[in-house]
Design brief:
- The complex is a heterodimer of chains A (224) and B (327).
- In chain A, 76% of the residues lie in helices and 0% in strands.
- With 224 residues, chain A is an all-alpha fold.
- In chain A, helix 1 packs across helix 2 and helix 2 crosses helix 3.
- Chain B has 2 domains: 87 residues, no CATH class; 205 residues, Rossmann fold, CATH 3.40.50.
- Chain B has a 6-stranded parallel β-sheet with strand order 3-2-1-4-5-6, sandwiched between helices.
- The chains are: A mainly alpha (224), B alpha/beta (327).
- At the A-B interface, helix 2, helix 4, helix 5, helix 6 and helix 7 of A face helix 3, helix 6, helix 8, helix 11 and helix 13 of B.
C-alpha cells in the first residue's frame, strides 16, 4: 500500500491535468482547480519541511562536532533571530491601527532584511565576477574550434552589451558596431541553441511524465 | 583564523572607517583625473601582459584586486556613456507606451536579494514609469522575498520622486498581494481566480475590500504583465501558462545569466520584450528619460567586462606565444 497509494494518486492527478489541458470545461476544469489548490497547500508544507530539515541537519552537526560546526550554530542563531522578529512584528502589526505587515518598511524584520540579509546574499552573488575574471585569465583558451567560437561569442557579447563596446567601434558604421554583433549572437546562434535544448527537454519531460503517470517510473517514491 | 585573513579583515574595517568618517561626502573625480586613472590602469595591464609573456602568470589575488578596483573606481568618476538600446528593451517600452492610463498591470517579483543589484534598478524604473503614467499595478511574488523587493522598489521610486508619494495611494493605484507557494500552479490557478490564490493582500486586507481589485477576477481583466525573474519559477513559467494558455501579454526583466534562455520566447513573439541584466535596466532608464541606479552601475559593469576581456586576451596571447616557442 505504501507504493500503490502514491502511484494511484499520481495517476489520477496526472490524468486529470492532461484531460483538463485539452478539454478546459466542466467537470475537468474543476478537478484542475481543486488539484491546484492542493498543490499550493502541499508547497506551503514543503517550506516547513525544509526548515525542519535545516534545523535537524544543523543540530546533528553541532552535537557530533562535525567539520565547520560553528557555522551551524550561526545558522540556528540567525534562524531564531529572524523568526522571532517576524512573529513579533507580525503579532504587533495584526493588532495595530492601521494594521501592518511584518515586512513593511520600518519594522525590525525589514531592518534585518535590508541591512543584513540583502548585503550578505548580494555579496555572495557578486563574488562570481572575481572568480570569472580569474578563470578567464588562467583557463579560457582558444585550444580548439569549439573553444574559439565560445571565446569569440564571449568577446562580442561582453563588450557589446555594455556602452564601452560601441565606444571602441564608434569609427565603424552603426550596423557593424559591437552592440549590433552582440544582438545578432543573442538572436540567432544563441536562440537556435536554446531552442534545441528546449525541444530536447520538452520531449524528455513528456516521456518521463507519461512513464510517471502510468506508474512505469517509480524512482521518485524512493527505495523504502 | 590565519594571520593573512586577520590582516585582510583589518584592512577592510579600516577602509570602511575611512569611507564612513574621514570622507563622508562622495568623492567625484574630474574628467581629466578619471582619464589619467584609466591610463594608469591600462599600464598595469601592459605590465601584466609582459609578465605573462615571460611565462610568469600573476596571482589570483592580483586578479581579484584589479577586478575590485575596476568595479569600484567608476563610482567616483564623472563619465557619461551612451547606453545602447537593444530592440527587446525598446519593445518593452513601446508596449508600456501603448497602455492608456488606468490600465491594470500585474507585476510579478520572482527574485530575491542575491539578484537584486541587477533586477532592483529595473524594477524601480518600471514602478516610476507605471506611477507616472497612471498605470494600476498589482504586485505579487512566486518567490518568498519578491513582495518585499517590490516594497523596496516602490520606496526607492518615492524617494527619487517625492511628488509620486503624494499622488499614489495604496489600494487605489497599487496593491501588494504578497507571496504564494506553488510555483507555476499559482499562475495556473490565477487564470481562473486571483482570489483563490490571494484571499487577502500583504496587510491581511480581504481581497474584496481592495478597490483596485474590484473588477479583477482573473487574467482576462488585466492589460499587461511585467515579470522580474532570477530563475525558476519565473519568466518561462509565465510564458508557458499566462501567455500560451490565457493570452496575457507578458514582458520580462531578467538577470544577464538567465536572459539568453528567454530569447526563444522573444523571437516567437510569446514574450513582448526583455530587459536583460544591468544593461537592459540602463537602456530602459534611458528610454524613460529618468536615469537611476542602472545608469550609474552600467559604468562599473563596462569596466569589469573590459577587464575580463583584457584578461582573456592576455591569457590567450601568452598561450599562443608559448605554443609557438615550443614548436
Amino acid at each position: 500500500m505504501k507504493r500503490e497509494i502514491p502511484v494511484a494518486i499520481t495517476f489520477i492527478v496526472g490524468t486529470a491535468y492532461l484531460i483538463a489541458y485539452f478539454i478546459p470545461h466542466k467537470p475537468f476544469n474543476y478537478f484542475e482547480n481543486w488539484f491546484n489548490d492542493w498543490f499550493a497547500v502541499i508547497a506551503a508544507f514543503a517550506i516547513w519541511l525544509g526548515v525542519l530539515n535545516l534545523i535537524k541537519i544543523s543540530t546533528i552537526k553541532i552535537f557530533q562536532k562535525k567539520p565547520d560546526w560553528p557555522y551551524s550554530v550561526l545558522i540556528i542563531i540567525s534562524f531564531v533571530i529572524i523568526v522571532f522578529f517576524g512573529f513579533y512584528e507580525g503579532y504587533k502589526g495584526l493588532y495595530a491601527h492601521p494594521s501592518y505587515s511584518f515586512r513593511d518598511p520600518g519594522t525590525s524584520f525589514d531592518w534585518l532584511y535590508v541591512n543584513v540579509y540583502t548585503p550578505l546574499s548580494a555579496t555572495m552573488f557578486a563574488l562570481l565576477a572575481f572568480f570569472v575574471a580569474s578563470a578567464s585569465y588562467r583557463a579560457f583558451r582558444a585550444r580548439n574550434f569549439e573553444a574559439t567560437l565560445l571565446l569569440l561569442a564571449a568577446f562580442f557579447v561582453m563588450l557589446g552589451r555594455v556602452p564601452v563596446g560601441d565606444i571602441l567601434t564608434s569609427w565603424l558604421p552603426h550596423q557593424y558596431q559591437l552592440s549590433q554583433w552582440a544582438n545578432w549572437i543573442m538572436n540567432v546562434p544563441n536562440t537556435a541553441g536554446q531552442r534545441a535544448i528546449m525541444i530536447g527537454i520538452a520531449l524528455g519531460l513528456v516521456s518521463t511524465s507519461l512513464r510517471i503517470i502510468l506508474g512505469l517510473e517509480r524512482s521518485y517514491l524512493g527505495n523504502d | 583564523m590565519k594571520r593573512n585573513e586577520v590582516i585582510t579583515v583589518g584592512l577592510l574595517v579600516f577602509l570602511v572607517f575611512i569611507l564612513k568618517f574621514i570622507i563622508p561626502k562622495p568623492v567625484q573625480l574630474s574628467y581629466t583625473v578619471s582619464m589619467i586613472t584609466i591610463i594608469l590602469l591600462g599600464l598595469v595591464f601592459v605590465y601584466i601582459l609582459i609578465r605573462t609573456l615571460q611565462g610568469r602568470l600573476i596571482g589570483r589575488r592580483v586578479v581579484f584586486l584589479l577586478v575590485g578596483i575596476s568595479l569600484s573606481l567608476p563610482f567616483f568618476m564623472k563619465l557619461t556613456l551612451n547606453i545602447p538600446v537593444s530592440p527587446e528593451v525598446r519593445s518593452v517600452y513601446d508596449a508600456l507606451q501603448k497602455l492608456p492610463p488606468g490600465s491594470k498591470v500585474l507585476a510579478s517579483f520572482d527574485y530575491d536579494p542575491p539578484s537584486a543589484p541587477e533586477l532592483q534598478p529595473m524594477a524601480v524604473a518600471f514602478m516610476k514609469y507605471a506611477f507616472d503614467h497612471g498605470l494600476k499595478v498589482i504586485i505579487m511574488g512566486l518567490w518568498p522575498q519578491g513582495p518585499q523587493q517590490a516594497d523596496q522598489a516602490i520606496q526607492s521610486a518615492f524617494k527619487a520622486e517625492p511628488s509620486l508619494k503624494k499622488k499614489i495611494k495604496y489600494g487605489r493605484d497599487y496593491v501588494n498581494l504578497g507571496f504564494q507557494a506553488g510555483n507555476e500552479f499559482v499562475i495556473l490557478r490565477m487564470g481562473e481566480s486571483f482570489k483563490a490564490m490571494f484571499p487577502s493582500d500583504l496587510n491581511n486586507t480581504p481581497y474584496d475590500s481592495i478597490p483596485l481589485l474590484n473588477n479583477v477576477s482573473n487574467f482576462s481583466n488585466l492589460d499587461f504583465c511585467m515579470n522580474f525573474s532570477a530563475g525558476k519559477p519565473g519568466t518561462a513559467e509565465w510564458v508557458q501558462i499566462a501567455v500560451d494558455r490565457f493570452k496575457l501579454p507578458v514582458a520580462a526583466g531578467n538577470t544577464a545569466v538567465q536572459a539568453p534562455m528567454v530569447y526563444p520566447y522573444l523571437n516567437s513573439h510569446q514574450l513582448v520584450g526583455l530587459l536583460g541584466g544591468m544593461s537592459g535596466g540602463a537602456a530602459f532608464e534611458k528610454l524613460t528619460k529618468k536615469p537611476g541606479k542602472a545608469t550609474t552601475y552600467i559604468l562599473s559593469q563596462s569596466f569589469a567586462h573590459t577587464v575580463i576581456v583584457i584578461f582573456i586576451i592576455i591569457g590567450n596571447i601568452a598561450y599562443f606565444s608559448r605554443k609557438k616557442e615550443n614548436k
